[in-house]
Write a structure and sequence with these properties.
single chain, 539 residues, alpha+beta, 16 helices, 15 strands
């Protein structure tokens, strides 16, 4: 019966670490009844002695096996590290060695000529005491685990194993009293210890498989596999189905043991992508991961993504494949909706960019209008004064010479009265354009007011300013503006102020600029009083 239980545990359960410990313990328990039974099947003393020794080896290892199994059952495997294992197993090994040596028949002596009937000595009682010591340590660990665990299921598990330990201990003690100590007064009752081993083993099996959580991970994995919405098919290297869950049944009609044919499955489906490339890689490159999307031929219009992952060993040899089916219909709807919104957002962004560009152009135009004169395109007086405040401060700091021209058009009122304001405006524009064409990019031309203009020339000394003023006056005098059948020519009068770097000192830039323009204006009026069409330099 113990052997049948042993085979049953292996046949119907996955082998975990705790199961391996239990199976080793189970195997040890099997050896006692095997030796006790086999000793009666032969009349050869040496063979009988072998089976008896086998029984007591199993009895000697029963205590350590019991203790180790309790450690695993109570989740206290940290006790089995390093030298502690030798400490736990050492006393049992010493007792077993003494039993096998049997010096002076102190452990066991045959009655008559064989070992069917035996007399036991003090070494047996040492072995029994050591086993009870193991029992005591195992009980301490069991009671400690019962106090520390909070899971009701685990407490039932430990309690069931504890019952098995008491059953084995009780029947073992009964065997010692009846068949050893009181053998002269009571009849021999065979199999008491073997019955205790069997009953305790039944308790251990119940503790593992009825109340135990040792297999909960495997059970959870099985439940997850069966109830997950994602369809999963596990096939071997030849395409034979090893596992298939419920999630795959709406998509694939295949059962365990059948062969899954990818070409036959994809045949009636609307596949998105290169199906021939997919099938080629599926058949000729089984070590690769693959993915493809297809549409179902039903009213639902569902879209399903199929993914194939190979299962390889350490040498990258194909052992099988895991084929998963994901319903991506909702994801596709979200992607389509997201794309639609992205397109709408893109169009809106384009509209905003157009509006932004238009605003930028308008702002540029407004900024230009704020600093320029609308008729001539020159800078206006407000911009000129703001810019000059900054410029004269730099000129003073770095001792940079500069010049300022102040000029107006001679007899401009007579042109307006004779030819009209349109011709007068054209004269202003043409004059400003002539002057602008003769300036540098760093120079500033501004309409000071009416027909009066100002030129600011940085990095310009007195000689350069006088020479440029004469050239501008001559160029303006040579220019003519069409006024109907007539051509109108104009001249300008100019006052020029030149500041050298040595004399450039002031504290208030606004007050300084007022003095500068007052001096230039005085020179301009002197030019007018001296007959116009001339340049007067401020001394």
């Amino acid at each position: 019966m113990l052997f049948l239980l042993f085979i049953g545990v292996i046949a119907v359960n996955r082998i975990t670490t705790t199961h391996k410990v239990y199976l080793a313990f189970h195997f040890i328990m099997m050896l006692w009844p095997l030796g006790q039974f086999a000793v009666k099947l032969t009349d050869f003393p040496n063979v009988q002695l072998f089976f008896i020794n086998l029984s007591f080896v199993a009895l000697g290892m029963l205590g350590p096996g019991w203790l180790f199994f309790v450690f695993f059952l109570a989740n206290r495997t940290t006790q089995l590290k390093g030298s502690r294992v030798l400490l736990y197993i050492g006393p049992a090994v010493v007792c077993i060695a003494a039993a096998m040596w049997n010096p002076g028949k102190l452990f066991m002596a045959p009655v008559v000529d064989g070992y069917t009937e035996r007399e036991y000595g003090p070494l047996l009682w040492l072995l029994v005491l050591v086993q009870f010591a193991y029992l005591f340590v195992a009980l301490l660990n069991m009671f400690h685990a019962l106090r520390s665990v909070t899971s009701v299921n685990q407490r039932k598990q430990l309690a069931t194993a504890l019952i098995g330990m008491f059953v084995l201990t009780g029947l073992g003690l009964l065997d010692v009293f009846v068949n050893v100590l009181l053998v002269e007064w009571l009849p021999v009752v065979p199999g008491l210890l073997s019955m205790g081993i069997l009953l305790s083993d039944l308790c251990f099996v119940i503790a593992i498989y009825r109340f135990g959580m040792l297999d909960i991970l495997s059970m959870a994995q099985r439940d997850i596999f069966e109830h997950m919405t994602t369809g999963v098919i596990v096939v071997d290297e030849n395409g034979k189905v090893l596992e298939v869950n419920r999630g795959a049944s709406p998509l694939v009609q295949v059962a365990k043991g059948e062969t899954f044919e990818m070409e036959k499955f994809l045949g009636p489906l609307q596949v998105q992508g290169e199906v021939y490339e997919f099938l080629y890689r599926y058949n000729h490159h089984p070590q690769e991961k693959l993915q493809m999307e297809f549409s179902l031929q039903d009213s639902s219009g569902r879209h399903v993504s199929i993914q194939i992952s190979p299962v390889l060993d350490s040498r990258r040899t194909l052992l099988g494949r895991i084929i998963t089916f994901h319903d991506v219909s909702e994801l596709r709807k979200l992607v389509v909706e997201m794309n639609r919104k992205n397109e709408a957002l893109h169009e809106r962004n384009l509209e905003l960019i157009t509006i932004q560009e238009e605003l930028f152009r308008v702002n540029q135009k407004l900024e230009q209008m704020a600093v320029t004169d609308g008729l001539t395109g020159c800078f206006n007086r407000r911009y000129l004064m703001q810019q000059l405040e900054h410029e004269v401060l730099l000129n003073m700091r770095y001792q940079i010479p500069f010049a300022i021209f102040l000029f107006d058009i001679d007899y401009f009122k007579q042109i307006n009265d004779k030819y009209g304001h349109l011709v007068g405006d054209e004269v202003l524009r043409s004059t400003a354009e002539i002057v602008r064409s003769m300036l540098r990019r760093t120079d500033i031309l501004a309409r000071y007011g009416g027909e009066e203009f100002t030129v600011y020339l940085p990095h310009t000394n007195r000689e350069q300013a006088e020479l440029l003023a004469e050239r501008i006056m001559l160029a303006v005098g040579e220019n003519q503006v069409q006024a109907g059948p007539d051509k109108v020519g104009v001249t300008i009068s100019m006052g020029v102020l030149s500041e050298s770097s040595d004399n450039l000192k002031f504290t208030d830039p606004k007050e300084y600029l007022r003095e500068v323009f007052s001096s230039a204006d005085a020179a301009l009026y002197k030019a007018k009083n001296e007959g116009r069409n001339r340049v007067v330099m401020v001394r």
